[in-house]
Write a structure and sequence with these properties.
The protein is an alpha+beta fold and 70 residues long. It is built from two helices and four strands, in the order βαβαββ.
């Protein structure tokens, strides 16, 4: 399962998710752009997200494994 989220503090979020090895992130200049990116990924069956975002300036993805936290 793949996870997608939005945040204003990517370093903190990465640590909160147990520093996944396949962590990827991108920067957005508008909230609309960020939300569109996340929505498009979430329309694909292999992607999901947790309860609420913590900002929008950075989007991130990683694969959920037994030692990661969602």
């Amino acid at each position: 399962m793949k996870y997608v989220g939005l945040t204003d503090d990517p370093a903190r979020r990465k640590e909160e998710h147990n520093n996944p090895r396949d962590w990827k992130q991108r920067t957005f200049s508008t909230e609309e752009e960020a939300r569109t990116w996340a929505k498009e990924l979430l329309e694909l069956p292999e992607w999901e997200t947790g309860a609420g975002d913590r900002g929008w300036r950075y989007g991130y993805t990683y694969t959920v494994r037994p030692w990661t936290r969602e």
